[in-house]
Amino acid sequence: MILPSSSLRRRPESSLRRWLLWIPAFAGMMLVGCRRADPPSRTETEHPTIVSLNPCADAILAEIAQPGQLLAISHYSHDPEAASMPLDEALAYNATGGTAEEVLALAPDMVVADSFLAPSTRRALEQAGIAVETIGIASSLEDSLSQIEALGKATGNEGRADVLSNRIAESWEAQQWHGERASAVLWQQGGIVAGEGSLAHELLAQAGFASHSAARGLGQGAYLPLEEVLADPPQVVITAGDERAFAHPAMADGVAQYELSSSLLYCGGPTIPRALERLTQIRRAAG
Fold first, then answer.
1. Which residue range is the domain that position 135 belongs to?
2. Same domain flag for 86 and 196
3. Which of 76, 105, 198, 234 is the most exposed place for a label (fewest CB within 10 A)?
4. Pairing of strands 110-114, 50-52
5. C-alpha to C-alpha distance for 169 and 149, rounded to whole angstroms
6. For 157-211, what is each residue's pLDDT tens digit?
């Protein structure tokens, strides 16, 4: 705070000296009042403290990390439209916007990010002595389980990672559909479809669906216009998102349509059992 020079001239020297002594204390009170929340204390074990910048890693680490080990998660997990983990669980953690400055202020031992982490950010973190682990997009169940294993090893939580992986694998087996498959289009935001070589495609197959779009040569992320859906409709259309075509009046005419939360398709890991449960519900409803 800077006082006008006229104010300084009006104060007696002794009063000014006493007033100046209050400035550090006043500033400290202001900082305490404005601070969002203290980060969790470090664990009493040798486990490295972590900041996650990856929403998929957020969900995994929230399940396998020791209490106090995960200092902050990505801001995506605090957004109801982008979170892949339950929002109430995500809000128990501080979140960062992903800048090097925010991470350095928390002083973690490790950062977990995606493979698109900016080189400048990575360099700043590594120069500060922070280990950087990256994970990519899980395109299959095996990819997802491998990510969990890798994060468990990197963070010193192999046992907890095994428990999570076993739970996901058991759910995968338990919810396998053994009857006839129904042709389905998984129609996502932007009018794109799930194709072979994606986790979404595997989820559809496991829950009892045959990909209508893949059978017609459309790959992962291909655009499917409304006209083609209506001209050659599958038995089931599963929409994930808020695309205008999904609510077109023509879709209500003889097309069996069901909704799936987009949040169940962003990541693998702990979302897999929930995605399978919803897809299995749809398959049963479709008959």
1. 50-172
2. no
3. 105
4. parallel
5. 13
6. 999 999 999 999 999 999 999 999 999 999 999 999 998 999 999 999 999 999 9
